[in-house]
Structures are given as structure tokens and as C-alpha cells.
Prior knowledge:
The structure holds two protein chains of two kinds.
Chain A: H1 2-17, H2 26-36, H3 42-54, E1 57-58, H4 59-98, H5 106-134, H6 138-152, H7 163-184, H8 187-196
Chain B: H1 2-16, E1 18-19, H2 25-35, H3 40-51, H4 57-100, H5 104-132, H6 136-142, H7 151-166, H8 172-185
Helix pairs in contact in B: 1-4, 3-4
Amino acid sequence: xxxxxxxxxxxxxxxxxxxxxxxxxxxxxxxxxxxxxxxxxxxxxxxxxxxxxxxxxxxxxxxxxxxxxxxxxxxxxxxxxxxxxxxxxxxxxxxxxxxxxxxxxxxxxxxxxxxxxxxxxxxxxxxxxxxxxxxxxxxxxxxxxxxxxxxxxxxxxxxxxxxxxxxxxxxxxxxxxxxxxxxxxxxxxxxxxxxxx
Amino acid sequence: xxxxxxxxxxxxxxxxxxxxxxxxxxxxxxxxxxxxxxxxxxxxxxxxxxxxxxxxxxxxxxxxxxxxxxxxxxxxxxxxxxxxxxxxxxxxxxxxxxxxxxxxxxxxxxxxxxxxxxxxxxxxxxxxxxxxxxxxxxxxxxxxxxxxxxxxxxxxxxxxxxxxxxxxxxxxxxxxxxxxxxxxxxxxxxx
Lengths: 197, 191
């Protein structure tokens, strides 16, 4: 029960300060869950984001569910997800009840213009930390550049490929390229792996 | 009964909107036309509010629409409904991933997925930077390259970057709070 509550509170905190969309939660997850609590690893987080991108539902929710589930099964997944949406629910209900012109207030606009700068720096730093574990050779570098360009230029390209499709294609390419390499590495190793099973 | 309909409509949105919060928008417009629970103007307002509060637009919109339709319980039910499909699907995938994590095919798939994942994170950062650091309208108006960047924002960005490097122990939330303060103090939005 204590661990369930911890999961709820950890995600409550992240949900309360998660400005700027699902990917902006990555630096917060890294700090609170990887470094401080040791609940997950940076590699696992990267995988969750990739999978969360191509499965139904919002990425942030998918990632929260993933981590909760790994920690404490179904109860943990529910605790993490409900924790993540708790603060936004309260904030929106408060705004809807009391503050009709909230987003137009100068102080709010100025504060968030500042926060956006911070979010963008936090995301850049998260990318730099993940780089060595994700872009490990020329193949992954090409994949990175291709997906980045397709996503960043999606507004300009004549044919916008949905992010989910890009992720699925990358996964399939990974399987194909990895399979080819295993084939080249010789039948001995492949046989060895089969024999182990 | 309205609770059940709210749950159903937002469950559907959660199930079919793949990826980021903005992926929920087409479903929200459709829901607005069909149910009249909220107007297109409400959606535009909610985009602005979502940019100025934590939480994804999809989560915020479901809370808001649920509240407008059926009060506080409605706000909670609609938001939980949006999250339910993620919960079910990820629980299934997580079990599968755990079981087959050592499989060569899964390892190969992850080898391809990881660079794609951080490429999308980079693109998301670039999208934020486009709004936070660059003022394309001012540049087009004056054709002066010096107007392309919002210099005080760039300076703040450099300071945060250096600050994080110099004091890695400080929690990101502290930097978020500092940036909000700097934004208010130096009128980052220009209002």
C-alpha cells in the first residue's frame, strides 16, 4: 500500500509541473524516477516513449501507466495514471469555476513565456543525455536524422507521415537490420543462440 | 445517464488519438459538432489554457467538457475515461514486453525505436523553441535578422542551460519556477 501511495504522489508531482506536453515530462521523470528513486532506467524510459507514441492514448499517460505497471502491476498502473491527472483536473476545475479569462491575464502570459524557455532547455538536455544510449552507430544516426526531419518538417512536406507510423517503421527497420546482421555474423553464433534455448 | 455518455465519448477519444495531446483535437471538434457539449470557441480557449497550465490538452479538455456538461463529477469521469484505454492497452503491452524482453526480435525493434523516440523528442523541443525563442513575424515585418530571436529569452535559455550544468543537484522544478519569475519580471510575452 505504501508503494502504491508513493507511486501516486510521485506522479501527482510530475503531473502538477508538467508544462509543455508529454515529451516535456521526460526530464522530470529522469530526475525523480531514475536518479532519485531508481524505479526505472533511462533506456527503459526511451522505450516507453517510443511505444507510447504508437499506441492509443496520450504519450504522457502511456508512460505513466508503463512505469506504474512495472513497479506494482495493475494497482501501480492505476495509481500512477490517476496521480498524473489529479493536479490538472483540480486546476482546470478551479479555472472553469473561478477564472474565466485565465489564459488572457498578462501575468499568466508572461510567466508561461518564461516557462516555455525552460521547457525547451530541459528537453535539449534530456536529448543530450539519451543520445549515447540511443544513437549507437551509423544506422541509428541515419534513422534519427530521418525521423527528426520528417517530424520537424511535417508542416512543409507534401505528405505528412503520422508520428505513430514513423515509430512503427523504425521498429520494423530495427528488426530487419538486426536480423540481417545476425545472419552475417555467421551461422555459428545463431546456432549457438538456438542451442541455448 | 449523461455520465455514461461522457465516459463513452472520452473513452473513444482516448482510444483513437495516438500520440501527443494535439492528436485529440480532431476528435474534440467532432464531439463538439455531435454533442454540443462545448463550442469550437471553447476548444480554442482550452488550447490557450492548456498552454498555460500543466497537463496535456486532451486531459484538460476532457475535464473542462465534463465539468460544463455534468458538473464536478462529470469533469472527473470524462478525464478518467480518456485515460482508461491507455491503461488497458499499456498493461497488455507491458506484460508482453516483460516476457519477450530478451528475445532478439524485441531487442532489434528497440534498437530501431530508440533513435526514433529521441528524434521525436528533439522535434518536440524544436516546436517549443519556435514559440519560446524565435519571433518569425517580427523578422518578416522588419527583414532584420536581429529581430528573428527573442534575445532575452535566448539569454534566459543559456543561463538555465549553464545553471543546470553547474548545479546538477537542483531540481528541474526550481528552474521552471525561476523561469516563470523571470518571465513575469521581464515581461516575456510583451504584455
